[in-house]
Amino acid sequence: MNILAIGPHPDDIEIGCGGALIKYAQTGHAVSLMVLTDGSYGADPSIRRAEQEEAAKYIGAKGLYWGGYRDTELGCSRELIVKIDAVIEQAKPDVVFLNFWADVHQDHRAAAQAAVSATRYIKEVLFYEVPSTQHFEPDIFVDIQDVLERKLHLLRLHASQVDKTRVENLNILESAQSCANYRGFQGRVKFAEGFKSVRMLREIR
Amino acid sequence: MNILAIGPHPDDIEIGCGGALIKYAQTGHAVSLMVLTDGSYGADPSIRRAEQEEAAKYIGAKGLYWGGYRDTELGCSRELIVKIDAVIEQAKPDVVFLNFWADVHQDHRAAAQAAVSATRYIKEVLFYEVPSTQHFEPDIFVDIQDVLERKLHLLRLHASQVDKTRVENLNILESAQSCANYRGFQGRVKFAEGFKSVRMLREIR
Amino acid sequence: MNILAIGPHPDDIEIGCGGALIKYAQTGHAVSLMVLTDGSYGADPSIRRAEQEEAAKYIGAKGLYWGGYRDTELGCSRELIVKIDAVIEQAKPDVVFLNFWADVHQDHRAAAQAAVSATRYIKEVLFYEVPSTQHFEPDIFVDIQDVLERKLHLLRLHASQVDKTRVENLNILESAQSCANYRGFQGRVKFAEGFKSVRMLREIR
Amino acid sequence: MNILAIGPHPDDIEIGCGGALIKYAQTGHAVSLMVLTDGSYGADPSIRRAEQEEAAKYIGAKGLYWGGYRDTELGCSRELIVKIDAVIEQAKPDVVFLNFWADVHQDHRAAAQAAVSATRYIKEVLFYEVPSTQHFEPDIFVDIQDVLERKLHLLRLHASQVDKTRVENLNILESAQSCANYRGFQGRVKFAEGFKSVRMLREIR
Amino acid sequence: MNILAIGPHPDDIEIGCGGALIKYAQTGHAVSLMVLTDGSYGADPSIRRAEQEEAAKYIGAKGLYWGGYRDTELGCSRELIVKIDAVIEQAKPDVVFLNFWADVHQDHRAAAQAAVSATRYIKEVLFYEVPSTQHFEPDIFVDIQDVLERKLHLLRLHASQVDKTRVENLNILESAQSCANYRGFQGRVKFAEGFKSVRMLREIR
Amino acid sequence: MNILAIGPHPDDIEIGCGGALIKYAQTGHAVSLMVLTDGSYGADPSIRRAEQEEAAKYIGAKGLYWGGYRDTELGCSRELIVKIDAVIEQAKPDVVFLNFWADVHQDHRAAAQAAVSATRYIKEVLFYEVPSTQHFEPDIFVDIQDVLERKLHLLRLHASQVDKTRVENLNILESAQSCANYRGFQGRVKFAEGFKSVRMLREIR
Q: What pTM was estimated for this model as a whole?
């Protein structure tokens, strides 16, 4: 299968579905990433680009596409939808992961809306969560216990972002592990990533 | 895998997930049914029992369990939950299908609540819809185009119920086909059954 | 009464509330349509314009207003709201129909938001559904059994769009009939269109 | 038309839809009331019965049915549904009003659930609100400006209840007028009652 | 504490949380206001500016910031978020009040979204309601009985707006009092303002 | 102030709001607990009673009330509501904590409904979450960083329950810490408990 994950900034994809992507790649599926902005608000864009490339490599992704927008300047425009359309045309995904539409960050809201439009004929489209997501009630889970260490390593590759939670003493690694444990219980496993379906056409095999 | 479908009355399971069950059985999975009441409000209970047995056979179900309650008298009692627990103990389901909790029929509300409690440690639990369901927004779909005729045949086996829609000129077969077509488009196929997840632990293979 | 239906593209109005509009016109009410874009993404805009004019005539509409936007380029701008305001000023609607705000198509989201703003002092405003609508739970229904054939004819007038569902073997006529039957049962009739109220001031007569 | 309003206690109907009922009766429709409990928790049941009879007379109701339950002891039982069924059989309502299901009072929750079940084939069923209702977002309104004084008089007939708000200095008359004004603006009139549809089959005339 | 209230137009803040602000100022907290547009659609902007300045003075606000946008032209842009960020930087609020995101007015929707983004690290952020708000279910209340007269006086200071409800015979003062009484009962007091939390970090003292 | 926490089983209160209760008691408020069932399904009831008494003592609670029901047999009956009423009469709470109504455990659903009814005139009532809670979106948070160790100790006092998560390798202590960290970020602190308001009358001081 072809898997495409779309994220507004470098590191959003890894936080939201990095564990699932590692498992898809391990199993032999073709994973691609599309990052819409340069993340320049969080650090120098060249650093963030390099971190994202490292992360893509670590996941084992076949492709890394950039939307080319500047951080904090994303809008749900026709242009953005067309750019995602073009990546979909190329990556031919069977499954698309995208961030959830309710979010305190404006780029995230725009990214989610545009990606929901661009994926309108894809048969499996799943929302993931990041720390700024609001009102998220996942009901689909992926067990990431066996790749948790790899997921945490993945987040460490975004070294410029690890301590940028703006909550005292809290870093992203700790936050990601707690989230995985919290969602894990909801999926009845120890560590999980949680997802919400835009639509999922389920195979019976 | 072991699949268990739970329904408040004879024919609810077939309407809600008959197509998916036929596909599971065809693929070699072990399908079991649990019907909570005797359906005596709709017809003579011996007729409905016989119809349900025929339907189970046609699906290719390995087991058919009866809750033993009288139609319209279901409550979400400890006793009912314990009965479902016992069937789960025996059928060891990997996947459970149950009717949705918002419904104009009191038996359906009670069945859904009890089944949600009884399945609390099952890793995949999915709500299905029937005509009395309210507020249902499925986001998981199973393509039933190739088994639609078999699903309609299945509904015909509940011969005492086919014309009991209480809407003039409308029968259950027509209604089921329209629903499959309506949900089909949402799942981006021609005919589908729609589901909503209580929780689904998704395998990556 | 004066009835105004607003749609993002040619054919959206007919799909969503064509049956109700035919009944309003038959009963002697003055029906007007406002179509916001030229539908150029779906076919040559001159073809779509001609189809829309035919459809308006078939409904028996007194007026057909165009928003003048290009397909896929609608935004919920002040300009769009002002344009709808101007049509409201002219058509003086007692009832307005508009598409629902949750939708995978960006034009539809923008159209719904702008129309909700423009209709803020109208006493009856109802959302309709189209195939790209999401999360729609209608609770107001119009029986369209006696005009179903006319509604299907209406959709056929948008000949360039009939097979554009992007789902294999599915065309819009079949989809519309299934939807009418599915919503019909919810309204306790055989075929219905389903609506959700923004606000409805109900007359007691 | 035949109109039936169902309420858990004496005075709930009048608070929730007294204005609409007065207008229905004035216009020549046949209004019936069904009160499920004796209201004995609020005052002596014989007083509350007499007050309710006065209120029914003032509305101009053709029938007043009693459920016969004791205050605070209502459950959503088969027995209750059967009792409402029997009244529906007799009153043959075209429109049913019932209290909303989300409510801090247990009798109200049970009444709403039972009435939703009993009215499952009625083509127009509307929820009304009372002070203990929660999460109510009406989107259908009835203008009661011309009968507001009569509605307040109606509430005064339930004299044993007027000061029972348990909020200091607040009585039911003041509360009802504020609610009517608050809902009024939502319906774009000065005073309104607000409703939410279980289902409404709308006539086009 | 430092309190910041953000409103799309002159008078929105006073309608939504004027009572709470008066109480905060009375108690010795530092209240600031930020008004995003000039309100020029409702009256001459110089009049509205003067009214807003009077209102801020009457509240006892320490600061009044202007967003500088023209009425009806607000969009949830990066620029707007940055402007609010700058005010937050200066006012250092512990608590922020902002209008709710579901609203029939486009400026209100944009203001709410931008303010949710700008306040993402503030520990107490509360939505207030105005007459154009939709789907608002407050669950946090402030008792304004002792300042109701002052709140009504505050609204009268926006003299150009008092009769602009576009509902016959209804003025803003009456509407505000009814709303306070309606929300009051929900908070179990006579008059209240109702709020909904974006997030509230509650002190235990 | 007087604080009352209500829980369906021994340990639910400690999981849901143990940290907040410790802080209330530390600050000098009078904390009471009401536990509705004996927890006999999880272990010998005498053990669970002893554990609960230890926990109450550790919190510094002034009172511990028992509902006297058997585990798994709770229903939202008049009797249960009356029992909670009696405790409220005695404890005179200013703030009540109760478990959320959406829950896979039938006792929890019944407890929440009964407690919502019993607390209908209390001015601050907050829902807490436990691992079986569903659809919980807290928007009020209490910082528990400084009492996290004490909260974990509190959970250890329910020694019979620590490993009863039925998820492999997961214990309640780990789960509680992850939840506190997950909710912490939502409240913009390191560790928090999350709550949802039934109603909160907020003091301005």
A: 0.97
